[in-house]
């Protein structure tokens, strides 16, 4: 195991490692992986705000052999693009986002809980977290039940489109599923007429034709589904774990929504679903007298920055009353800042509020939590709970 690119499945407490690095080596050159790892809040903020730190290419010259549908999606995602391509893709993603119908999560949660019941135990991750955020996005774009089912059943494999080092098996699955998901999403966007108004705006501003706008819309709606699946799943998991592990549920719920929202926000700082993101320097960048050279790779350890004592008082303490918890870096900042940050906090708050309102006794059945073998995200594989 190296200190920077370990798998979250292989480490019980990544935070003690981050604490050590923050203290000894906040800007660390990892010789083995040939990258800079940034552990400090200031370092991460500087790079996130830098106009010369780009999102790295994950599949240069299509060396991974993605087919045309998969490649079309990957190349047009706001999350993976830079410069003018990013400006346009982000505009498209924001347009889609602002056209989502508002959904109440209660009914969806109730159905998922019912479906997931298995005797006294329920696996919160598989029954709720992996489904609910994606179902909410699908429903808010009016997908029918059949298409929604197909997409929710296959989205997990498609999320691998975002990772740099894919296995052959992952590539084959992406290639198998991308065309079908692309065509389902395209059909839904055509039926809803969403593309037309955007064609006018974008073709005037950037000289883009209708076909290209449609393909940007399809790719970025798929992007919203991918982001909901991974990160949305993690936030719902980690926030529930904080409540159950710390036995916070017994607290007086006089102002429930606010209380739960504060737990969700502090979870984003203290135990975030996303731990790292990446950049590459396209010019020399000076960071605390260290020169990050043009072409150097940079790993931003956001989860470590969230525990930086220069930013947060007693950072190792889960404290919902700290007044700057919301300045965590879990959603990124700058040009690529997550456009769904308020949506994600609201969603997790609503779900947990409903859960604790309807069920007065919720307990963790197994406190040994295993994590997915991912390096950038800390996502519990299962959380077994009893609900009464
Ligand atoms: C707790 C949940 C979430 C977390 C922690 C999260 C985190 C992030 C982070 C860290 C970034 C920026 C990456 C970077 O700068 O390198 C990002 C970008 C993005 N997120 Fe989220 N996200 C969450 C939920 C969502 C959801 C639910 C959606 C969609 C419905 C979404 C859509 C996006 C998009 C489209 C971008 C790309 C923005 C751009 O590059 O301009 N996120 N997210």
Descriptive report:
The protein is of the alpha+beta class and 388 residues long. The protein has a single domain, classed as Cytochrome p450. Helices cover 51% and strands 10% of the residues. It has helices spanning 14-24, 41-49, 68-76, 83-98, 106-116, 124-129, 132-140, 145-158, 168-192, 194-206, 210-245, 256-270, 302-305, 341-358; strands at residues 27-30, 35-38, 53-54, 121-123, 276-281, 285-287, 290-292, 297-301, 362-364, 384-387. It has a five-stranded mixed β-sheet, sandwiched between helices. A hairpin with a 2-residue loop joins strand 6 (285-287) and strand 7 (290-292). Helix 3 (68-76) packs across helix 11 (210-245). The two termini are 42 Å apart. The structure holds protoporphyrin IX containing FE (HEM). Protoporphyrin IX containing FE binds at residues 78-79, 90, 93, 133, 137, 223-224, 227-228, 231-232, 235, 273-274, 277, 330-332, 336, 338-340, 343-344.
